[in-house]
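Sequence in, structure out. Go.
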Amino acid sequence: MVVARFRERLWVKPLLMCVVSIAAAVGASLADGTGLAHVVPATASVALETLLSIMASSMLVIATFSVGSMVAAYGAASNTATPRSFGLVVADDVSQNALSTFVGAFIFSIVALTGVKNGYFLAAGLFVLFILTAAVFGLVIVTFVRWVDNIARLGRMNSTIEKVEQATADALVLRRNRPTLGGVPVRALPRGVPVHATEVGYVQQIDIARLQTWAVSVDARVVVAALPGAFAFPDRVLAYVSVAAGGDATPELGEVTASFAIGRERRFEDDPRFGLVVLSEIAGRALSPAVNDPGTAVFILGSLVRLFAQWCQPAADDVAPTCDRIEVPELSVHDMFDDAFTAIARDGAGSIEVALRLQKALQSLATLGGPAMRTAAEDHARRALERATSRMDLPYDLAQVRKAAAFATPALRDD
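Output:
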């Protein structure tokens, strides 16, 4: 999670590249202490100064231009899709690598040019520095071409949807393989001493291993009551702690509270439902009267079907619970369907394209998953039909939606 947060900081990679650039420029002088000067051709310092001057003057301009383009793309992602997708767009590797390369090349050229003008390098050092300069030029050209191709799509609707879908898919795979986050399923109703949150925000991550270590030390069991994505506040129960007979009757519960990372925003990594919510928000914005883009909502439905199809795949065989004292509830398929389809069914009830595609998506999921997914799909199909019935004026359109929803409504199948 800490790594993911650093990926969203634009200064991290440029800073690392600056350090590497300074080390490379200064390190070229190490060749002067070897016999390399007797075997390499002589390098004119004037030619090297010219190359470095060109790089120094151009890289700062390109870096400034790249920052402006990235900021415009970030604004487009927030305005056209949803502000919740901003973190994923900022974490785009191609853009961050491009900015880092441009800034690093600028720093390299400044440091190297200063050294050349002050006679810091001898014959071997000048030759090595020339090779490094040529390599940096080549890297800049390749990076610039890749970045131009990427910036043309960065922040665009389809690109943003793909990033959100991929982040959601990664979170779903992790939860599918570890449905109880490394703990064991909840065995009974929550019991024991309730542990309440001490701050307001969303549960972003739960350190199950830390809870296990604490539970073993006090001979207790912990039942998690707030999964990642839950909204926490001082009266919200995060977990229940029950101590075995003979154990510490009043254990210190601060370690339990500290195991729950709470922040102002939900995160994609450990919260698959958040990705479903963000996709639904993008579809809802597309269906607003100001945008009126049902095609994007239809595209989102395709993404949701792919995600739930992936959720239905068998879990990895070698992933087994490792924290036997921590009981964690599994995700509810019905809740996941609420996150994904409720807003789309509401906002697209009056659009034949969206209402019809929604029914077909739910029908495919009803046949794809198990009993729980089929029940959830049929329930949402009936709700969507009720909304369409109250919003659609043309009888023919409504008849099409009723026909598509027949899989979930016995009365319609009998007609």
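Check: Residues 272-319+330-412 form one domain. The chain has a mean pLDDT of 85.
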